[in-house]
Amino acid sequence: MSPxxxxxxxxxxxxxxxxxxxxxDAVEQAKSGHPGMPMGMADAAFVLWTRFLRYQPNDPLxxxxxxxxxxxxxxxxxxxxxxxLAGYDLPLEELRRFRRLGSRTPGHPERGLTPGVETTTxxxxxxxxxxxxxxVAARMLAARVNTEDFSPVTHRVFGIVSDGDxxxxxxxxxxxxxxxxxxxxxxxxxxxxxxTIEGDTALAFSENVGRRFExxxxxxxxxxxxxxxxxTTALERAVAESTRPSLVITRSHIALGAPHKQDTREAHGxxxxxxxxxxxxxxxxxxxxxxxxxxxxxxxxxxxxAAALAPEHDAWVRGLEQWKSRHPRRxxxxxxxxxxxxxxDVIEQLIHSAPTGAAATRAHGQAVxxxxxxxxxxxxxxxxxxxxxxxxxxxxxxSIQRAAFEGRNFHFGVREHGMASILNGIAAHGGFIPxxxxxxxxxxxxxxxxxxxxxxxxxxxxxxxxxxxxxxxDGPTHQPxxxxxxxxxxxxxxxxxxxxxxxxxxxxxxxxxxxDGPTLLVLTRQNLPAIRRPRPLVADDMRRGGSVVREARGGxxxxxxxxxxxxxxxxxxxxxxxxxxxxxxxxxxxAPQLFLRQDARQIEEWLGPRERRVTLEAGATDYxxxxxxxxxLAIGIDRFGESAPYKELLEHFxxxxxxxxxxxxxxxxxxx
Length: 672
Fold this sequence. Notes:
By secondary structure, the protein is of the alpha/beta class. It has 3 domains: about 5-310, Rossmann fold; about 345-520, Rossmann fold (3-Layer(aba) Sandwich), CATH 3.40.50.970; about 540-670, Rossmann fold, CATH 3.40.50. It is built from 25 helices and 18 strands. Strands 9-8-10-11-13-12 form a 6-stranded parallel beta sheet, sandwiched between helices. Helix 1 (about 5-30) packs across helix 2 (about 35-50), helix 14 (about 360-375) packs across helix 19 and helix 16 (about 415-430) packs parallel to helix 17. The longest helix is centred in the N-terminal third of the chain and has 28 residues, at about 5-30. Belongs to the transketolase family.
C-alpha cells in the first residue's frame, strides 16, 4: 500500500470514527437514544455519502439532488453527524442538543426542521415506502421534462433500512410496487444487524430476505459494510442496474466496537453508559475527552466531496437556464410541476363547473376531478384497487406502469398502507400533488401514513368513499362508525364531508388550495338529492367550514347542523318541524374543523344558543359534543352497523326526515 493510500485510509477511518462517537456522545448527553445503529452503519453511510450521493449543502433543495432516506430513523444521530460534517446548516451545538426541546436534532428525523432531512421517519417501514414514492415521482418528472439535449431529472433515491423496517407490512407492500414498476433509480442498504429491542431477530424473523426481494423483482446483492471497496463495487452495480430497484444486504454489527454491548439488544434504544462509551473509544484509539470531538481533518473528505460536486451542481443550474430558452413550452411545464401550480381561483372555477343534480358525492367527485386535473398538471393519483367504486380515475390520462411513467393514474393494488406511504414520498419529492383513494373504513390501514402527511405538512389529498353505515349491504366490517371522529382528531388533517355537487367541488378546490397539510375528502356511495340553498355556494363558505342551507321561519328557532349525506335529511326534517310550529335553521358543515377556528362569538351568531342546537351525522357523536350543550341533541350512531339495503338502514338507524323530526320533538318535550 502506497503512503498516499495509507494516508487516505487513515483519514477515512478518522472521519468514520468521528461520526460514530458524535452519535455516542449525543446519546450519552441526552441519556436517551440509539447509539448502536450509527456505530454499526457509519462505514456504509460514509461510503454512500462520499462516493455516490449527489448533494450540495449550500443548496439543500437543489431539485436534482439525490434523495437520502434514513428509514431506520431511530439511528438519527448517524444522519445528523453526517449532515454536520458535510457542511449543512446544522452546527455542532445542535448535535449537543440532541433530543432537547426546540433543537433541530429530534429523536427521529423530521422533514422541514433539519436541512438535509427529506422525510420524517420513525415508524418503521414508512421511510421505505416514502423512498419508493420519491423514486416513482422522479421517474414521472423525468418522463415529462427530460430531452435528448438536457435532462433536468437524473437523480436517484438512496436509503438505509433496518430489520424492523423489513418486518413491517408497509415496507412489503411498497417493495412489491417498486419491483412491479421497475424503479432502477432506487437503492437501499439493508442494515442486517440481527438485533431488535427484544433480542436476536431469530426470535421472530427467520426468512430469507434476499430471496423475498428477488421475488418482488429487486436486484439483490450482499456486501461487507466494513470493506469499503467491496461495498463500493456493490453500489456501482446497483447504480448501473436501470430496470430493477436494488437492495444491498450488509451484515453489520450493532454498536460496533463496544466491548460488552456490540451485537446486543442493550445497544438498541439506550445509551452505552459512561464506562462502555469510554471503553469503546479506547478500543478505537479515540480520545475519551472532550465529548463531541470533531478533528479538523474529519471535515476534509466531506469538503472534498462537496467541492467535487459543486461543478456538477453549477453546470446543472446553467444547463437548466439554457434548456429553458431552447424549450420554452417544456420549461413552462417544468415550472408548473415544480411549483405545483394551482390557479388562485381554483375553488371558484370548480364550483362554477360543479355538477348540480342528484347523485352520490363520489359521482360528483369523479366529475370534479376531471376539471381539477385540467387546471392542475401536478395532480396525479389512484386507488387501492377500488377505482370503479371510488371513481378517482383521470379519464383522459394513461396509467403509471413499468417504463411508462408519463401517465397520471396509479394502480396500487390492494395495498392501502403501501399506497399511503408512497403518496407521502411523492409529495415530499416535489413536482406532484398526489391523491389516493379507498373506502373510509380502510383508513384504519392507511392511518399511520395519513398522520405522517399531517405531521410533515404535505399536500396529499385523501379521497375516501363509502362513508357511513348507509353504504348498505356490505355490513359492519365495511361501515365506518368512529372513523370521522378519529380522523378529525389528527392535528393538521382537514376532513371535509360534502353534501352535494357544489360542496364536493369546493372541497376539491380547498384541498388543491391548501399547501401546508393534507385534506381528506369523505364521499358517499348512495345517491343524494340536490340541496336547495337560499343563495349559491361560494368559496368562502367552504373556507369558513359551513354555510346556511335553510333559514328558520318562526320565533325562537333551533339550529340543525349536519354534514354530507345527512344534510338533505336535516332540511326535510326542518320542513316537518315547521309544520309543527318549530322554526329550524339548517347549517351544512362539511369542514367543522375550519368552522371551530372562529371565535366563540361568531360561532354563537351562526348557530344560536348551545341548548337550541341539534347535530346530525351518521357516525359517532363524540366530536359533536363540543358544539352542543349537554342539554342539546347529538343524533348519530354509537354502535356498529348492520347488513341491509341502505334505505332499510335509514329507517333502522333513524335517519329519515320523519324519524329525525320525531327525535327532535321528543328532545324538546323532555327539555321543556
